[in-house]
Specification:
Layout lengths: L10 E2 L5 H13 L2 H9 L7 E2 L5 H8 L2 H9 L14 H7 L3 H27 L2
Antiparallel strand pairs: 1-2
Helix pairs in contact: 1-2, 1-3, 2-4, 3-4, 3-5, 4-6, 5-6
Length: 127
């Protein structure tokens, strides 16, 4: 697999917080969960992407920092979000040799699928 470079590129965001979003992606790239959390608390938009569609989760996965990955997932970014090259955060973690980060992302996917299955079963029961 050949993922696009690991550095945050131009941030795609239309608003006053564009510099905060760039800092957020950089914090995630560095695996700095505390800075990422503080930036979101200060108004940085968690759902920002760079010019190739990478999210904070892609950068957190590339850093290999499980705490940053957990924070970004808890903030609402889906575990299976794709960049423009159709790579997930899991691809970035695996490509970087970050086994713990990759495992965390796989577990997030399993949890999401379990919840969806339970909701689907519940909706069938209530019909």
């Amino acid at each position: 697999m050949s993922v696009v470079g690991n550095q945050p590129d131009d941030v795609h965001h239309d608003g006053d917080n564009a510099s905060k979003e760039a800092l957020l992606l950089a914090a995630c790239h560095e695996g700095n969960s505390q800075s990422a959390r503080e930036l979101v608390e200060q108004g940085a938009e968690i759902f920002v992407t760079d010019e190739v569609g990478r999210t904070a989760l892609h950068f957190a996965a590339a850093s290999g920092d499980v705490d940053t990955i957990k924070f970004v997932l808890e903030s609402g970014i889906p575990w299976n979000t794709l960049d423009v090259g159709n790579y997930t955060a899991g691809d970035y973690a695996e490509n970087g040799g970050h086994t713990d980060a990759y495992t965390e992302l796989v577990q997030a996917g399993i949890r999401a699928e379990m919840v969806l299955r339970m909701l689907n079963q519940e909706s069938k029961i209530n019909k």
